[in-house]
Amino acid sequence: MFRMRVSAISLLVLFFAGFAHAKIDEDGFEPENIIQRDVVIVGGGASGTYAAVRLREDLNTSITNTTLEYGVQSYMHYGPTVSFFERFGIEFGPFTSRRLTTINVDVETGKRLDYTPPAANETTEALRKWLQFVEKYNDLVEPGFWNFPPPDQIPAVFLTPFGEFVQHQKIEAAVPRIVTISGVGVGSLQILPTLQVVQAFGLAVTKGVVEGTFIQPKTSNSLLYQRAYELLKEDVRLNSTIHETERDHSGVRIVVKSGSDTAKTLIKAKRALWTPFPSQYNLKPFGQDEKEFQVFRSWVPEWSYVGVASIPCIPENSSIQYLPREVEPSNHLAIRHYPHSLSLGTTGPSGLDLFRVMLGANYSVTYEEAEEMVTSGVQKLIAAGTLNYTGHCEVDMKALSAHNGVLWPRQDDTLEHGFVQELYSLQGYRSTWWTGRSWCEEYSSNVWAFTDTVLERLLKTLE
């Protein structure tokens, strides 16, 4: 945790919902619809909420932000995680997972696969080797890439295709655990630069797995955000639509419309903190200039959904893993050799036939298509005789949430042309700072630790 003495800083948190287009004309706003602040935070997810709490509660600032867990399951004992929970009086304890019987099936047919996953001791040994590797280079990537070397000094191993690295280091047994936890590499795991796997599964998460130090709230993950909102709600604009943005070295102006408000509001701030993922769609109303566009234009979209479904035809305490046929008999590196991944695992109270749904894809998937992929996946199990069940199985999707985002561009020469340096040169540029999972490892604990480093730098520009 950093500590700074600063004069009172005011900020506004926008729970970003979308955008439209309009033209800023300050004369067209009534005085009560013009807000002046020092910092405006765009986005109210893990990084936006954390940043707002830290700025107001720890840095003398003022701002004008029974359950069933199917998204985040646990947290690492890393960075500010424990203190953030304690701040809101949320008790936590060791993470415990339900023991499930895994059934590996062909993603195309639903038939059982003759796939033998690595033994537990093999997995642990391989993860220990991976731990040694990521520990060696940790200061280059955690928290964030502030210390990443220039192109001519990048460790060659970072540019090595992950498949080659795994085979050379003989750590194939670590691959199933890495991809199951991180979701990295759908459709392209073997050819990804090793750095991108490091970014998805670095030191903090590897230590958490090897040492068994993950933690979880004793009540609900959502309680953290409920209490944060109660703290910040006078200064939060829910469901805000950004209509136009002007940014330069002197500050930012953002026109928004929030919730059921009939009038638009002009926000004038000295600094902006952007926390959503930087897709071209999200950034349209944020007034990119050519420098920013060149950095963000080639990022790769990813589609990911998590949810809960009632599936009465799958035995309780089961986990269905849909895998490509190439994994037989024990080709662990092929586990992501397919354009999408799907798993269904028993969750929730016993007897309710509830399953946690995890779906990832390297192509566009809508909510409706995601539901259909789950339903058809279940019917494949029945048609193939994998389940002792006949007829149509009614899949009832209780909840489904998109975790879509964008990833760094994957061209082989991207890093060698200074991508990381160009990306981080945007920090503070045009009075704008950036945080969130696109800038570091995507786990909440890592995002919070990285956000601290951003806030420290942002506040120095306001002294």
Automatic annotation (TrEMBL):
The keyword Signal applies. InterPro entries: FAD/NAD-bd_sf (IPR036188). Keywords: Signal. Residues 1-22 form the signal peptide. This is FAD/NAD(P)-binding domain-containing protein. It comes from Didymosphaeria variabile.
